[in-house]
Structures are given as structure tokens and as C-alpha cells.
């Protein structure tokens, strides 16, 4: 079954992607409970359209949004400007070579992004993660915190992690010392037609068919939360 082309979405359809993720609840409270945000220097790795950056920026001392996609970062920048904030900047970057000074952040967050370098069908995945982890630890100050969010399954009420990411998830805990928990992060749509359109756009026909067959306005999603203090 043909699956949506995420790199194309991130490059050419950032606004529609933003519509999709706007249907999920804010992660501010989840992050603030792990690491108090007020007056911190933050890096958002794989910031996308700013789902994390925009909710953290108002309390942060500074926030740097990094992403591979310039079009996604334009959406983030627009939202931050609209909010009247000035303590931020955006920059195109690769997770494996961050354009950031050593010991420059108190908190690093990454939502649904590192996993694109961790597909176990790619022979380079372990080396990719090694470089990402080295960079994360380099840019965090002593005592700093890293928080990684990744998918544990869309359309499921309990964790159902993709097979091709399970080795990566184990590596985070067993080799890199991250602690794991999971949360529900359901999508709440205005209509079944909207739910079908936006889920099919990003997740493909299988999820969209479930939406239609069950007339879902609330589409369940599970998210993994991995945390590490350096």
C-alpha cells in the first residue's frame, strides 16, 4: 500500500501538516513537569511547524528551532512573530551536526523527528543515532535535560510502536540511559470528513479507513516520552 511521502509533505505541504497537528493537545505541561521551562535556553530539534517551540517560547529565556525543512520553519517563524515574541530564532540544520555552541542549552526537545534517522531497515541507523546523541550531549549544559517524543502508534488506544522503530526505542533506554513513559495524544477533529482528509494525508489509507468505518472525531494516538539528564 502506497504510504504518504513525508519529506514531500514537509517541503511542500507544511500548512496542511500544521492543520493536522493543531488537532492535538499542547505538550507544555508534560515538558514543564519534567523540566521547568521558565528562563531556560531551549533547543527544539526537528521543530517542524513549531508544535513545541511555540508553546515553550513565551516562558523560555531563548529558544532555537532547528529543522531540515525551511518551509516548515517558515510556519514556525510566522507563528512566533504573530505571538509578538523576540527571544527565538530558526535555522536549517541536520540533527547529526548541530550549528550550536557547546554547553549552550538547558533543555533540548525533539518531537517525532529523530526517528526518521532510526529506521532499522537502514544499515546506517545506529551510526545516525550515535551522532545525534553525541550532538545532544555536546550542546546541553551539565545538568541539562533532553526530552524525545516519538510515535507509539496512531489509531491505537495503547502503545503499538512501528516495528522499524522498536530497535531505536530499545537503544535509547539500554545504551543511552533514557527513561521511558508514554502518553495519549489524541487528535480531535471538527468532522469525520476533516478527520479522514487529514489522517489520510499524513498516515495513509489504513488510518483513514478506520476513521470512516467508525465515524471517528477523536482519533487515538500514543506517544513515547524519553527523558535524560546529562
Report on the structure:
There is one protein chain. By secondary structure, this protein is an alpha/beta fold. It has one domain: Vaccinia Virus protein VP39 (Rossmann fold), CATH 3.40.50.150. It is 37% helix and 25% strand. It contains 9 helices and 9 strands. A 7-stranded mixed sheet has the order 3-2-1-4-5-9-6. Strands 7-8 form a two-stranded antiparallel ribbon. Strand 4 (105-111), helix 6 (125-139) and strand 5 form a beta-alpha-beta unit. Helix 2 (14-21) crosses helix 8 and helix 8 (192-203) runs antiparallel to helix 9. The longest helix is centred in the middle third of the chain and has 15 residues, at 125-139.
Strand and helix map with partners:
Blueprint: H1 6-12, H2 14-21, H3 28-34, E1 41-45, H4 53-56, E2 62-67, H5 70-82, E3 88-92, E4 105-111, H6 125-139, E5 140-154, H7 166-174, E6 179-184, E7 187-188, H8 192-203, H9 205-214, E8 218-219, E9 221-229
Parallel strand pairs: 1-2, 1-4, 2-3, 4-5
Antiparallel strand pairs: 5-9, 6-9, 7-8
Helix pairs in contact: 2-8, 8-9
List keywords for this structure.
230 residues, alpha/beta, Rossmann fold, seven-stranded mixed sheet, two-stranded antiparallel ribbon, 9 helices, 37% helix, globular, transferase, Methyltransf_Superfamily
Briefly characterize the structure:
This is Class I SAM-dependent methyltransferase. This protein is α/β, with parallel strands linked by helices.
Amino acid at each position: 500500500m502506497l504510504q504518504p511521502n513525508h519529506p514531500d509533505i514537509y517541503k511542500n505541504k507544511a500548512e496542511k501538516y500544521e492543520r493536522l497537528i493543531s488537532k492535538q493537545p499542547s505538550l507544555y505541561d508534560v515538558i514543564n513537569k519534567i523540566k521547568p521551562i521558565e528562563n531556560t535556553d531551549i533547543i527544539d530539534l526537528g521543530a517542524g511547524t513549531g508544535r513545541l517551540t511555540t508553546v515553550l517560547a513565551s516562558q523560555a529565556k531563548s529558544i532555537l528551532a532547528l529543522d531540515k525543512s525551511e518551509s516548515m520553519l517558515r510556519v514556525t517563524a510566522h507563528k512566533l512573530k504573530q505571538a509578538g515574541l523576540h527571544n527565538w530564532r530558526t535555522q536549517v540544520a541536520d540533527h547529526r551536526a548541530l550549528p550550536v555552541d557547546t554547553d549552550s542549552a538547558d533543555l533540548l526537545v525533539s518531537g517525532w523527528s529523530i526517528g526518521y534517522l532510526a529506521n532499522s531497515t537502514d544499515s546506517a541507523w545506529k551510526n545516525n543515532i550515535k551522532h545525534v546523541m553525541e550532538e545532544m550531549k555536546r550542546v546541553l549544559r551539565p545538568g541539562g535535560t533532553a526530552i524525545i517524543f516519538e510515535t507509539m502508534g496512531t489509531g491505537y488506544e495503547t502503545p503499538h510502536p512501528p516495528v522499524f522503530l522498536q530497535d531505536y526505542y530499545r537503544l535509547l533506554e539500554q545504551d543511552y540511559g533514557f527513561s521511558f513513559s508514554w502518553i495519549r495524544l489524541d487528535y480531535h477533529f471538527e468532522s469525520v470528513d476533516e478527520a479522514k482528509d487529514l489522517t489520510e494525508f499524513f498516515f495513509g489509507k489504513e488510518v483513514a479507513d478506520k476513521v470512516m468505518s467508525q465515524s471517528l472525531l477523536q482519533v487515538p494516538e500514543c506517544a513515547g516520552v524519553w527523558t535524560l539528564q546529562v
